[in-house]
Amino acid sequence: MTSEIFMDYKQIWAGIRSMYEDEGALEGKIRGEHLGSVIRLTPYAMAANIGSASLMLWALQDLRSIGLYLWYTCMLATACVAMQRWRHYAHRQLQTASRRAARRATWHASILAVLWACLPVFWFASVTSGQQLLIATLFTGMLSAGTFLLSPLPRASLCYASIFTAAALWALWDAGEPIMAGVAGLMVFYAPINMVGAISSWRKATALIISRSEAVRQEQLLSTVFRDFEQSANEALWEIRTNGMLAQASARLCTLLRLPPAHAPSTSLPEWLAQHAVRENDAFSKILDQQAPFHSLPMALEIHGERFHLAFTGKPFKDEWGHIRGWRGVVADKTSIVQAQEQLERLAHTDSLTGLANRFFIHQAIAEEMQAGRGGALLLIDLDYFKTVNDTLGHSVGDAVLQEIAKRLQTASAPTHLMARLGGDEFAVLMRQSRDGSYPLALAQRQAQILAEALNRPLHMEGRRLRMGASIGLALFEPGDTDVDGLLVQADTALYVAKDAGRGRYVAYTPEMGERNQRKARLENDLREAIQRREMSLHWQPQIDVSTGRLCGAEGLLRWQHPELGAIAPTEFIQIAEQSGIIDTLGAWVLLQACEAAVHQPALAGLDVSVNVSALQLRDADFVTVVQATLLTTGLAPHRLELEITESVFIEDPARALQQLHALRALGVRIALDDFGTGYSSLSYLSQFPFHTLKIDRAFMQKAGEHGCGHTIVKSIVRMASDLGMRTVAEGVEAPEQLALLCEMGATQAQGYLWSRPCSAEAFAALRSKWDQGTAEERVPMRSEAP
Ligand code: C2E
Ligand code: CA
Ligand code: CA
């Protein structure tokens, strides 16, 4: 119901109907207010009624009518009932009233009106003209007063006025005097005016009630919103005067500002913020100076060691002349959001396992150092045997190892160093310096040494003692350098050199290494096509039976003739093939070539052929199948093939290696342990796997001639092998004395430059034919030309 309902009469009637009939809260409230205002006036109204009735009784006493006394008694009784109702409601604030109460009020008003109507209806015609005047005057007064008094209750008011008017007209007509027609005319004129006035008064009062209740509702809503805002949200309202002093600081605002409430009235907000800002402490004053609205001004503050973040939104407020009187707005606590963002940022920069920086972050840090024009040093660290630990002891131990390594790095490094885990078992340390100029190489080397020692100390994990060891590559950058990736490549190159040099050590980068690296990259690239381009070939080196001097076998050794770089040593390209994953293809090709040659080349007829097999090839699950298929396709008798493996096959996964070797043995091929004595020399493998042949490394043969330790070692290897039922092949026999010694020791076979260098198939054919022509007693062999 709104004020529009008064636009026309239809709406007025609808409004009245709604007030009496509708159950709504607002209608109940309107009824209550109107009824209340009528009830409040009851004592005066009743006093007027009784007074007037008493006056009438006195004025009409000469009638001596029982009816009049009865009328007067009824009037008194009605007044008593009304007063009783007034007493009932007197001490209550009527919030709402029922529809019944409103209807009852109409009935009361009507009864009262009927009582008054009796006066003219029964007695007007029979009294003196003076008494008639009194009745008419009183009646008119009671009509107007009653109608207005009852105006808040329109139905009561209308009924009252209608009954009064009807009674007056009846009495005037009953009197039968012509002058009374004029009075009746006046009555007909006054009554509607009274009614319209009453309705209009009701209308205004109702509109007032509605707007008041709307205002109360809005006030309640606002205060609820405000209370919620102050209590639950992480926000508070702030207001300052032009001098910056806080005005009406709420408890919530004080909490957000970490300001003791007692100090609030004497605190200037811009000063308080400036005093505790972490950086840019005049930001708030500056934005106020702009005298314009601002939004979400971030402020990082620190009070008593607590860091928190607020965001201020506000605008100036002005007086009627347009002068700024102060600022007000909202302040929000953004601490949790900012902390979450910082946490995310940290995570993006941190390796979650070790808590060190990650690859991205150290890259960025190096770039920053370079941009600042400072020199520094970068260490790249690679754990030597991490993969074995991870594979054999499981990932949780692997993780614990990495965490322990990270701790050691931190302990062994200076606070200015930045430690990072680049991934897997690769770490990096950036050594920064505060001064300008180059980073001293000696200092970087000392630090690398300290780290190498720290990381080479054994680890204790789950009751085991693990030797980890780390190789370290070191590269320096000079003021003016800008190439972060180049630096990483240099450190990586140095790291590979360190690994090649035998692990557990550090190597500083030199430009020559760069060339080596470039060569390595080129070779790796060219190696992929070397077979198709027919640059690869297999050379053969004869193996001689020491006791008979007979040619008994040949070792196939791979050769690569690079079109531009010339002959590349197998020691160089085999390693590249292993590192780049080409070794499987290359190895399979060598095997096929060797087997085919053994079957088809007359020079190899009746000889055993040895083929070198890389540890990586043996690890391949398909290797046994490849060997089997090659034997099948070439038709070589398996016992003529000897596969030479080195002890390095046992490093990573000994159980798996043994399993593969047994599977190969089951094919009927022979297995030789190459370079025996140089590798990891775990004699336990000799008892675990029955090798057919032990190849004694060349290094021992060189020392054997000097009757030093080499002599003793060769002797004991030969004895041990013969005890285990294995053949021995002595490698690198160059001098007749060495051969004599081998004879004396009882070695089975020998190979070396004494008889021939490894040579091409054609050269080997020539060698063989000469050999076959040679005499048995003339055992000192012919020398072939170097390849
Ligand atoms: P290895 O298996 O120990 O081969 C013997 C090496 O000693 C050969 O070097 C051979 O030329 C050399 N040699 C033989 N007799 C003498 C001697 O009297 N004095 C000296 N100073 N050296 C002698 P090469 O051919 O350069 O091969 C080096 C290594 O490359 C081989 O060592 C082997 O580990 C690897 N290799 C060669 N071909 C293959 C291959 O087809 N597959 C695999 N996986 N490795 C191969
Ligand atoms: Ca070999
Ligand atoms: Ca060897």
Description:
The protein has 787 residues and is an alpha/beta fold. Helix content is 56%, strand content 17%. It has 29 helices and 21 strands. The strands form 4 sheets. Strands 13-14-16-17-18-19-20-21 form an 8-stranded mixed beta barrel, surrounded by 5 helices. Strands 5-7-8-6-11-12 form a 6-stranded mixed beta sheet, sandwiched between helices. A hairpin with a 3-residue loop joins strand 14 and strand 15. It is rod-shaped, with a radius of gyration of 58 Å. It starts with 8 loop residues before the first helix and ends in a 14-residue tail after the last helix. Mean pLDDT is 88; it is low at 1-6 and 775-787. One calcium ion is lined by residues 674-675, 695, 731.
